[in-house]
Design brief:
alpha/beta, elongated, TIM Barrel, ten-stranded mixed sheet, DNA polymerase, domain 1, 2 domains
Length: about 375
């Protein structure tokens, strides 16, 4: 491609912004048979083609026609930060954060979380977030826009390549738990999951190895329950006291705990699956014996597991993580109530890659303004 060709392509619309139905409509408009849309989708995602010329199953005429009207533009990695250097024996303990530049110049962050058993990609469904949870750096960025489905799959492809390069093995799990709220971008999230789980593509993962995390948006929870998605669902609760939860998460005013409990029960009934209640322990705020009692009471209403996580410090934020003795007492109280509880070890805090810390800065390379 010459520089002139690149300039002309930059003016064309990006074909990756089209979903499957729109690809089918495009091929129909071009007078092509229906199966061509499936082939085009496979070239774009199964083979991750970056130009039409390489689509050898298409005639030269069709390739030329597509290239004259459409461009193929993908998200790209701007920078990768590691929590610590990779050890000589490839010790899988290094959390990596990737700064991803989207085709329009917007930035998001994605995180690679390795362990002995898993290789997890934490991806972002939005640039920024509109929900303004008081403990979350992303919410303080403000909201930029929803991501297209391809911008989520491109994050996965980038993290999978990073995992292969670092450890010689690819992703085993995906969590929609990065920047933004997945249930505010459900159409594109569902489209992306369909692509990620497409069999015989270069990258494919089982739906049961994908988790969607939400702050508790009830319409989205109901939609997932009715959708037939076989993914897992995690709900950030952070307090089972309605007033405290509203202070931590303003959206709780719109979706109070009683209604959330009914939505979770509906999800349980429809899917037969538990949800994971994610609870971040904040010193002096939601870590008392009374907080534990209220959480136990709420959790017993539904089919769930509880995942306790530590607060990850953020500059200029007033919160602090709970003391270890307080956390241990909190855990014991939940276990005594007969609940399934895990304590998740925080990873990535040293590079601002842990829960609540993701926030891009103002420069196109993610640098701070001068």
């Amino acid at each position: 491609m010459t520089s002139t060709d690149h300039q002309e392509a930059a003016l064309l619309p990006n074909i990756k912004e089209l979903n499957r139905k729109q690809l089918a409509d495009l091929m129909a408009d071009l007078g092509e048979p229906k199966f061509r849309a499936g082939q085009l989708h496979r070239w774009l995602y199964g083979m991750q083609a970056q130009d039409f010329e390489s689509m050898s199953s298409f005639s030269l005429g069709l390739r030329s026609k597509l290239a004259s009207v459409w461009a193929i533009r993908s998200a790209t990695v701007v920078r990768a930060d590691s929590e610590m250097p990779v050890s000589a024996d490839g010790n899988p303990s290094t959390t990596a954060k990737l700064l991803i530049k989207l085709p329009d110049g917007e930035l998001v962050e994605s995180v690679l979380i390795p362990s002995e058993e898993r290789m997890t990609a934490c991806i972002s469904p939005q640039a920024g977030c509109p929900l303004q949870c008081s403990f979350c750096a992303t919410g303080h960025m403000g909201f930029r826009r929803n991501l297209f489905a391809f911008e989520m799959t491109d994050q996965v492809y980038a993290l999978n390549e990073e995992a292969q390069n670092r450890y010689g093995r690819g992703l085993t799990n995906i969590v929609f738990m990065g920047m933004g709220e997945p249930l505010l971008n459900m159409d594109n999230v569902i489209e992306a999951i369909g692509t990620m789980t497409e069999q015989n593509y270069r990258f494919c993962i089982g739906a049961k190895r994908i988790s969607i995390s939400t702050v508790g948006l009830i319409p989205g929870i109901v939609r997932i329950a009715e959708s037939g998605l076989r993914t897992k669902l995690a709900i950030s609760i952070h307090s089972a006291d309605q007033q405290k939860r509203e202070k931590l998460m303003p959206v709780a005013r719109q979706y109070p705990l009683d209604e959330l409990g009914r939505a979770i029960a509906f999800y349980n009934e429809k899917t037969g699956q538990p949800v994971t209640l994610v609870y971040m322990l904040l010193a002096g705020i939601n870590d008392t014996a009374d907080d534990a009692r209220k959480l136990a009471r709420f959790a017993k209403r539904v089919f769930c597991k509880i995942n306790l996580i530590d607060y990850n410090p953020i500059v200029n934020f007033k919160f602090k993580p709970a003391y270890s003795d307080t956390r241990n007492a909190f855990v014991s109280q939940l276990l005594d109530a007969g609940l399934h509880v895990t304590v998740r070890k925080s990873q990535g805090a040293a590079i601002n890659a842990a829960c609540g810390q993701l926030a891009t800065l103002s420069g196109n390379d993610g640098s701070k303004p001068q």
